Queue: 2 jobs
Job 1
Amino acid sequence: MTQHDNDTAWPDHKPTALLVLADGTVLEGFGLGAEGHAVGEVCFNTAMTGYEEILTDPSYAGQLITFTFPHIGNVGTNEEDIETVNMAATPGARGVILRTAITDPSNYRATKHLDAWLKARGIIGLSGIDTRALTALIRSKGMPNAVIAHARNGEFDLHGMKEEAREWPGLEGMDLVPMVTSGQRFTWDETPWLWDKGFGRQDKPEFNVVAIDYGIKRNILRLLAGVGCKVTVVPATTSSEDILAMKPDGVFLSNGPGDPAATGKYAVPVIRDVIKSGTPTFGICLGHQMLGLAVGAKTKKMHQGHHGANHPVKDETTGKVEITSMNHGFAVDEATLPKGATQTHISLFDGSNCGIQLDGKPVFSVQYHPEASPGPRDSHYLFQRFADLMRQKKSA
Ligand SMILES: NC(=O)CC[C@H](N)C(=O)O
């Protein structure tokens, strides 16, 4: 890594992109994607595939992603693998940091080169970064705030970038859900993609599910539709009266960006009412964290977070281990789980909480991403668990 000690000591060549960390470290690279600059928290993602799904996951709002896998771009991009539902909103990640230049696409599903796709979505990128060193730095010091900038003419306001990186308040305490949640209610019936058929439709739904959209991913909606749900997606600030008036068979609490404690200020009272009503409830990631808050547990910021598609998790209710997709920088502090909330899943990487269930209630949630996209399908069974709870409730 190259570090400039003062703002004027430029080498003869001009880099076309920079990553400036809050501590003043400057990493030089080659610009790609959109020109401009963005501020966010740098996290590393260890997935070897699925960069398009990762970059369009709304949970990454406010973050800059460094991929540990060096060959990004080889399957190009397409219109089908986008995870953002609310296309009018800010796209997921604000920036992307790569080791090598984007690999040219070679895949039958590719419709666009990643570089052009990033440009079209306003995502700023840089390559030529020693991503192993950056990842090692995150592992030892935690996820830094940083400014990423791309300017073809090589002209940067380095002083301003350092100041912006230093002064950005960071994700702790930040509610980013308003940037990504849908502005209005809509229904969803598309089922998962099959290799020989593409997407399907759920035309005989067994359950009506209301999904509270804190930044929901498409594949969650598809898997819900796949287990028999007609899903009505509602904005994050929808009241519990409005939700319960729809007489849902189940309520889903989605993933999303930012600090659960900040979003929880308005989401937790709604979640409490939903639990009290006895409606089967399933939460994923931010939804899991806010369910934890709703029962009185606390959440905490993690040191390096979990972002990848290779995280082992143990389901303590069955003893089975599943390899999961993860994307979170906060976690439920298991030590604060109250009586009545049982830990059901744990991370086999660091023992952190990965799932809870409320005793005697049809309510459960997981910290990781059973919908994958990208990632292994080991955890798809959780959607079936939710359907089973709704079926039991309906026939009770
Ligand atoms: N994927 C998510 O829902 C992420 C939840 C939360 N924003 C976190 O970083 O922990």
Job 2
Amino acid sequence: MAENIRVLIEEEKVDKRIEELGKKISEEYAGKEVHLICILKGSIFFTCELAKRITVPVTIDFMSCSSYGAGTRSSGVVKLVKDLDEPLEGKNVIVIEDIIDSGRTLSYLLEILSARKPASLKLCTLLDKPDRRVMPVHVDYTGFEIPDEFVVGYGLDYDQRYRNLPYIGVLSFAE
Ligand SMILES: O=P(O)(O)OC[C@H]1O[C@H](OP(=O)(O)OP(=O)(O)O)[C@H](O)[C@@H]1O
Ligand SMILES: Nc1nc2[nH]cnc2c(=O)[nH]1
């Protein structure tokens, strides 16, 4: 089956929104340091672009968990694949995600992370699909709310491809 991609959010629009989020975070954390947690692999592009636009001191750590196998559907079971290198105690932590869909990944991760006693813990996502939620998640910073469609680009993959697209696209299949 041939794969088609339709542009949903153009590169310029994504860049502009990330700039706005960077400004908002910089204002809200004025006089503090923020510790960004990049959830691999999808949020790597967003984390880099956002971090460049934050003007308060920034540190970054990485974590990886899996719930999506090959294809477009979640297995529903979240597993921690790579833990953080650094402790969180006393830090102003912002978890950076590319997308929140069912909410399973983030509700699992936020529970683990809040037990490590950060000074504060917030969540920032580039994309949110609220219609798909099965687990409640409080999101502090959202780039875009999108409809229930499978998206790729800006870090998001289909079978590990398309992460490098500089825009957000909707993937569909044709005979
Ligand atoms: O809200 P949920 O339904 O839990 O879905 C969101 C999760 O799915 C994606 O990760 P994925 O498992 O595709 O891994 P990847 O980032 O390595 O591509 C995304 O980065 C989130 O972590
Ligand atoms: N690539 C991709 N990964 C996801 N994980 C949860 N939802 C999505 C989506 O729409 N696209």
